[in-house]
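Kindly inspect this chain:
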Amino acid sequence: MLEEILYYSNMTYGIWQLARAKPVTDPLGQIRANIDNRERNFLDTVRRGIFAFPDHPYVAMCKLAGCSLGDLESEVPRHGLETTLNRLREAGVYLTHDEFKCKIPVVRSGREIVTDRASFRNRILPGHMRAVSSGSRSGGTQTPQNVQERLYREVRWSVLDREFQIRGTALGQLLAVLPSVGGVGGCIRTARAGSPVERWFAFSGTMRDSGHYRVATRFMVQVIRLAGLSAAAPTYLPANDFTPVVRWIDGERRRGRRCTIRTSPSAAVRVAAAAAKAGVDLGGAVFLVMGEAVTDAKRLAVEKVNAGIYPSYGSTELGIVGHGCRQSHGNRVHFFHDALALTQWRHPAPRTDVVVNSLLFTNLLPHALHHFINVEMDDAGVVEPATCNCELARAGYSTVLSDIHSFGKLNGQGTTLLGTDLVRILEERLPRALGGQPGDFQLVEKEGEHQTQLVLRVSPRLQLSSPNVARDAFLREIRHFAGGSPSAVMWRHSQAIDVEIVEPFLTRTGKVLSLHLLGDKGVKSHAS
């Protein structure tokens, strides 16, 4: 209880600070200045955020690689930022996703480097608002968010505002309530930009299991209002029912207003499916989506009801990495290289024989949520020059990422679950709860008719009384892992999990792989 009180007290203070902060007066100038000074910003951030702390894990990595701060200060101007980062990665200065999440130890040159979940947090600007990657503060990764980082999101929002002509539209969001801070943060950012969220549709569990989150969210909305900003309180959707969102969009359309909605791709498709069933034209509505891939099937489903869908790409730890423009199709975004550097590493994906072009990210700005050098987020993609003439390209975002997909984690309905955690559930926890052994349970991700769907395949040898027994057990077990609680709530609401009492798929060599993730180029199998 004391931890809960402290958590929300800090959040209240952070929200108040952000709501009352002065806006950036020249957003476009700030973006262009940071693009022009990428190398200088990187060296300043490394100097203040990493080498100023002798116990920092990256200091140990650099020492083992024979690299000092002075070496970096001479190498970056001489060879360029990205070339230097590639050399650092080859010398052992990098971080895999499982290492960052403390799933495996960080070992370089035969020496273990001691880390914990707080090791890479921003030590220059500790924040009061905290993004949490799970449904409880004890279960997932906490990311303190400082005011400066949140203000820089407003700088980017000003570019998106022009690209998608958001100002003057009816702005809504279909997002989870606390502990996810996306909905609360969106209310503040859009209100400060002069186009506040008018309707907040939300998923939530029952009052019994999620009532305290509803109360906390309502309290934070009141804090935002006390700070002088407009903020919409959440409207909770009935289970597996997206028609209230359709009715709102249709009502605004009849009043001559186009709608802009922030949500996840699967939720946008469910809204589109509800509109198609009701015979409702969405009147050019724009869905700005996050949290999972925008496949061709999802895009076509939304476009059929006269709406558009445009992705952003990011993570709790990195923040927003890039955003799509109106000329983008599918899973393609402009890379925000004012704040991040990007390199690629071609290697076999963990728990599989598939070779991927993994994306490695490095923070450039001192207000970053974490200070990373060559961190891997278990995502792959294609890096290429931008060819469009959109507002993002004119702002200086001249590189795009396309064909982005995850090879080590499950992204669905806007939440993230690690592959290592899912394999543990499938091979250890479900057999313990329901009987059987490793190889009797398999999770398969596929594109359903209206959303990303998960299929839990269970061997008939277990002789379960009902498929619901396996579904309920799986949803109980994922709550013990980072990302599990919000995933359980959303998947129950949207009925995103099917159970099949059939033998798991076998590979050509006769192996049972516990986890099959769907990427843009097909199924990527994760071995146990």
Observations:
- The chain has 17 helices and 23 strands.
